[in-house]
Design a protein that fits this description.
mainly alpha, 2 domains, 5 helices
Length: 110
């Protein structure tokens, strides 16, 4: 987003993962203290550094529209997952249709 630096962007990603500023700050401080982040946040510990104040996070949230962006991100991810699921189901159906005649042929031979 325009004007957003990398630390602010990584903070937004952490916010998206935690779904609240309070939980985000707790997790940020935990990671900054040397604890391993959860699997979905792997690699973030090198990027976020020391946690800013709650007031700073709230200002970033307002300035860079975190809530609206998080909702948009969730919508895009959901659409992507649904499309991937539909594609997998279509491929599964094609395999089944291909295998069905072979199966019928085998059953008729017995």
């Amino acid at each position: 987003m325009d004007g957003e630096n990398l630390k602010q962007y990584w903070a937004w990603l952490l916010y998206c993962e935690m779904w609240s500023i309070n939980k985000m700050l707790v997790e940020w401080k935990r990671i900054a203290s040397g604890s391993k982040p959860q699997e979905s946040l792997k690699g973030i510990e090198e990027k976020i550094g020391k946690a800013p104040s709650r007031a700073t996070i709230i200002n970033w949230s307002k300035e860079f529209r975190w809530l609206k962006r998080r909702d948009w991100k969730e919508k895009v991810q959901s659409k992507y997952i649904f499309e991937k699921y539909k594609k997998a189901k279509a491929e599964e159906e094609i395999k089944l249709r291909t295998a069905l005649p072979k199966l019928k042929s085998l059953l008729n031979q017995k």
